[in-house]
Design goal:
The chain is mostly helical and 214 residues long. Helix content is 63%, strand content 2%. It has twelve helices and two strands; from the N terminus they run ααααααααββαααα. The longest helix has 21 residues.
């Protein structure tokens, strides 16, 4: 109702002013103003609001990502390539998802300018599981859980880190590292159904010191 009242009395400019005055508590007001301009194809105004918003709003807030993407869309209509790429980068910084990361590789130019910077951005991540605020979801932070973090490491080419995680069995089977090699071999032998062991089965048996398989 407040938004409607402001729009009625002061127009979209009044809504933008309210956003500037209250962005620390209600940053989504920028998004509301952008949506109003979008109804009349006001791409220049949307882009301008986006530039102002990403400068003011805390980069850790996910709502900032939505605002940046809205501005990026406007920039694409205006053929402002540099601003489009910057908005896409800011979107990833504020909401570090695989989708937002892959968007940085939409063109060679964007990949060269921003895609290669993604790995460094992950170094300052907020760890944990995303929690939606009941009081004010506008202030939800860009929290990256371990699963998403490992996905992002894979897409940024940090294969060493991904390999190290995939070799860690503590989260699944609970086996010790020394048992993994023998345990997997034992399971393979257990699942072998033919009456006569193959050369491969004999080799697996020999690898764990079980030479009696004939």
């Amino acid at each position: 109702m407040l938004k409607e009242a402001v729009l009625y009395r002061e127009g979209i400019e009044g809504l933008v002013k309210m956003a500037n005055d209250n962005y620390k508590v209600h940053p989504s007001l920028y998004l509301e103003a952008m949506n109003e301009y979008d109804k009349n194809y006001g791409y220049s105004q949307i882009e301008k609001i986006g530039e102002n918003a990403i400068e003011k709003i805390d980069s850790k807030l996910t709502i900032r990502s939505k605002i940046a993407l809205k501005a990026a869309c406007a920039s694409s209509y205006l053929n402002h390539t540099e601003k489009l790429m910057l908005f896409c980068w800011e979107s990833f910084r504020s909401d570090s998802t695989v989708r937002n990361l892959l968007r940085l590789f939409a063109t060679r130019e964007m990949a060269e300018q921003y895609g290669i910077r993604a790995e460094k951005a992950l170094a300052s991540r907020i760890k944990g599981n995303p929690v939606t605020s009941i009081r004010n979801s506008e202030l939800n932070q860009n929290i990256i859980n371990n699963y998403t973090y490992n996905e992002l490491n894979f897409y940024t080419g940090n294969f060493k880190a991904v390999k190290a995680v995939s070799k860690n069995p503590s989260g699944s089977l609970g086996w010790s590292n020394c048992f993994v090699g023998e345990g997997i071999c034992l399971f393979l032998l257990y699942l072998f159904e033919d009456a006569v062991p193959s050369k491969a089965a004999k080799a697996v048996a020999n690898s764990i010191g079980f030479s009696g398989l004939q």
